Amino acid sequence: MKSAVLRKPLLTEKASGLAEKNVYTFEVSPDANKIEVAAAIKALFNVDVKSVRTMWMPIRRKSQFTKKGVLSGVKSRRKKAIIELKNGQTLDLFTPMDVKPTEGTL
Length: 106
Fold this sequence. Notes:
Layout: E1 6-9, H1 13-19, E2 23-28, H2 34-45, E3 49-57, E4 60-66, E5 69-75, E6 78-85
Antiparallel strand pairs: 1-2, 2-6, 3-6, 4-5
């Protein structure tokens, strides 16, 4: 069984600024392509997608100097998608993705 295409929305300062222009950013599954991402957005949020851009975020190496020595680690590589919606459509990212109200319920 294939894993879920959309993992989580990326809510950063830059992404919040882009949201005013109908552009949203999501972390997606590493094996997802643009067509699958667009279909998942359409199915989950019931909006029309204008374009999808995907990119790989590189590995980030981090080190911390402590009394016991140097601690080092990595932040793993991840794939993110930038989704642009058609004019007049928006996403409500603060409603949980799993629990969306259906039409006719309050």
